[in-house]
Amino acid sequence: MQLIEGLQTDLHIGGSRRPASSGERFDVMNPVDETVLASVASGTPEDAIAAVAAAHEVLGAWGRRSPRARADVLRRAFELLDTRKHAFARLVTLENGKAGGDALAEINYSAEFFRWYSEEACRNLGTVSQAPASGARILVQHRPAGVGVLVTPWNYPAAMGARKIAPALAAGCSVVVKPASETPLTMLALASLLEEAGVPPGVVNVIPSRSSGAVVGAMLHDPRVRVVSFTGSTEVGRELLKTAADCVVNPAMELGGNAPLIVCADADIDQAVEGAMQAKMRNLGEACTAANRFYVHASVKEAFVEKFVTAMGALKMGNGLDAGIDVGPLVNAQTRDKVEALVRDAANKGARVLLGGTRPGGPGFFYPPTVVVDVPDNADLLREEIFGPVAAIQTFEDEDDVIAKANATEYGLVAYVFTRDMARGLRMCEQLEFGMVGLNRGLVSDPAAPFGGVKQSGIGREGATEGMREFLETQYVSVVW
Ligand code: NAP
Ligand code: MG
């Protein structure tokens, strides 16, 4: 328990730390050795309402600060996080398990949201126009929507929060964050850093809780809450959308994915392998953007698979805190068991496991980089989010067929296409029913780009100008002068 100096483990409400009103706590595990890292306060619905009250109390003052003043605070948050990135990355690895490189990339990505939205805070532009018939003027401005409830998953303990907090603060909103129970420590530390950067007490509150449904439900039923921004599973997202409907709260939903990765006959194979490694293995496959279904043109299958298996086989698995480790443990036993079951199901249905496929003994939720080919259409591996280091490969012959297969999912977050022919690539992008496409790239996430999905993958966008809109309400003034 003394592993981490200065660790925050209590609720963070109105700038002070306090235990849960019930006195309850829960354990946070280190997935590398299944030991307890810390015991964290488990907020109750009453605590959550206290956090909403704290956020509401400072909402007006924060929203009335000049955009430049809010921008300066966000800029300091970027600088502080950048300065302390190694300590934050270590904390991410400790509670999530991911390798050091992945953790550092996550912190850099998180910091970039504070930088980007420090710039966007001063670009909240309205319009003035003339009513076509009446002669009145139409003044449109975008104002802070109100208190936001932010619910985040465990796969990016810092970034999924930063991607919501930064635009909310830029817009002039105050927030209550409910981090995932697997990984609340990073968010508690980030809240302290934000206050050090000059975020006034109460503007960012954090309520870890083992009773997530009751806590989030109570907050959404509080009329002071105007936005719910959620990242997590489609299943929980649907529940939150129902509550948001009852309470008429603005929803922003970043949900699950089932990304296809298409390698065309004319692809640059080295580029495709590099992109595939990023799209599959970034964050150990524990990403909503992870390539879930590989469709490789039959004419290049052998060349692609050979190089891809070599690259996957070269990855080093171990404790993410150690130097040179590419692959840490998965976050928990449930996630590891699901990955294992998906591979077993595919193998039972006739797929061939070319690499990995067997979990090592000993403590820690490890599962090795795994490549499975000849995956039959009825394998669960192609339908469910794998959320682990397993590549499921099929071949295709015809462009229209592969587009139809890629689109044959309820999800629509991201797709990847590799081809040397840009006209073909762009044509395919237009036919793919996904909110984002990586064209000859295995990484689409960027603070300056609108991240988000269509279909069951979500509603709304994070990042870019769009991300701030989720925390703004439009007001129009009709005036004659
Ligand atoms: P999850 O089970 O949906 O949990 C996400 C968050 O919701 C956690 O904070 C969780 O709290 C909370 N939660 C659970 N049940 C709730 C309820 N009934 N009411 C309110 N809140 C509730 O998802 P996960 O297992 O942490 O994360 C994996 C999923 O997230 C995957 O499906 C992945 O695709 C998705 N994801 C999507 C994106 C994206 O941007 N589209 C990014 C990352 C992850 P507890 O931890 O306390 O249960
Ligand atoms: Mg969960």
How would you describe this structure to a colleague?
The protein contains 15 helices and 22 strands. The protein has 481 residues and is of the alpha/beta class. The chain folds into 2 domains: 268 residues, 3-Layer(aba) Sandwich (Aldehyde Dehydrogenase, Chain A, domain 1), CATH 3.40.605.10; 188 residues, Aldehyde Dehydrogenase, Chain A, domain 2, CATH 3.40.309. The model has no long low-confidence stretch (mean pLDDT 97). The chain binds NADP nicotinamide-adenine-dinucleotide phosphate and magnesium ion. The site of NADP nicotinamide-adenine-dinucleotide phosphate has 28 residues, from helix 7 and helix 8.
